[in-house]
Amino acid sequence: MPPVSDFHGVNWADPRDNYADDAVVPSGLSTSDSYATVYAKSEAIISGFAKLGANTVRLPVNPTSVNGPFWKSYRGAIDAATDQGFKVILGYWEADNAKDGKIDNQAAWDQMWARITSAYGRNSKVYFEPMNEPFGYTAQEWTDIAAKWVQAHGNVPRDRILIGGYKYSEDVKPVCADPRLKGTRLALHNYGFWHTDWTSVDQWKQDFKQRIGDCASRTILDEFGATMTSGLDYNGPVNGSNEIAYIQAATDTIRELGLGSVYWPGLRNGDTYSLTTLQGTGTDLSLKVNNQSGLDRLHWAWRQ
């Protein structure tokens, strides 16, 4: 299986954010789309991601999208990505009427993962992230839940499982240290807006390394991002910019430690962090880069 450094990815997100009570639907898709339409739209969007240099896409799932009627069509997005050779990370988001950092409905969650792993457990391109940002649990509670998921899905190779770090997936060390989770990959999140007063690249680098500990060989930074629609030059001097310092530190750390990385987001309509803007109509879609210097920093991180 590929080392984490081979994950050069972007998130493809719902315009409303991926917290949804109903089906979660990535930008450009619709619940009324047939499988063939989702596949054709996704083929175009994934091609756009490939032109950015990406080889991985992270897609949201929730019980409504998987256990309900949309799943039949939504599979077109996963299939279009893997057919183009992309790795696909499927991560669970809780509903927006909860947002308590806990699994909303255990039975529905179990059913969702049974359905997903039944469909894609044998597809070596598909990876599974049991929960995005499990901040409602203590470290012990979360590792217990994660260990139970790994045990329940013994047919899924451990290196195709991403276990989110503690709290807002912000610290992978407690997960990394749990022997029950040995061999799994770790999902880390870190954002510049968590420390808006930090304008030192070195301070940010130290922060990243503190969150990772000695677990870099297992860690995929599957959410990190900054404003891409305001004309900031991420290649230039920091000049007191929290976002420039943060992006430079993030991409330097990814490159230096050989982390996997999945930018937030590659595409999300209406999100100022979105690396691209969706253009076109129907299935004739393309992506326009919003900030070339931001993309340059990703290429630096990915050694491209």
- The CATH class is identified as Alpha Beta
User: Which regions have little confidence, pLDDT < 50, spanning 5+ residues?
Assistant: none
Ends: how far apart?
21 Å
What sort of overall outline do the alpha carbons produce when their principal axes are compared? globular
Secondary-structure element pattern, one letter each = EHEHHEHEHEHHEHEHEEEH
Indicate the percent of residues in helices: 25-40%
**Overall pLDDT score:** 98
**In CATH, what is the homologous superfamily?**
Glycosidases
Characterize the biggest β-sheet. Answer: 8 strands, parallel
Tell me what portion of residues adopts beta-strand conformation.
Answer: 15-25%
What does this structure look like?
It comes from Streptomyces jeddahensis. InterPro entries: GH, Glyco_hydro_5. This is Cellulase (Glycosyl hydrolase family 5). Keywords: Glycosidase, Hydrolase. The structure is a single chain. With 304 residues, the protein is an alpha/beta fold. The chain has a single domain, classed as TIM Barrel. The protein is built from 10 helices and 10 strands. Helix 8 links the parallel strand 6 and strand 7. The two termini are 21 Å apart.
Lay out the secondary structure:
Elements: E1 8-12, H1 35-52, E2 56-61, H2 63-67, H3 70-83, E3 87-92, H4 106-120, E4 126-129, H5 139-152, E5 162-164, H6 166-169, H7 173-177, E6 185-189, H8 201-212, E7 219-223, H9 242-257, E8 260-267, E9 276-281, E10 284-289, H10 292-301
Parallel strand pairs: 1-2, 1-8, 2-3, 3-4, 5-6, 6-7, 7-8
Antiparallel strand pairs: 9-10
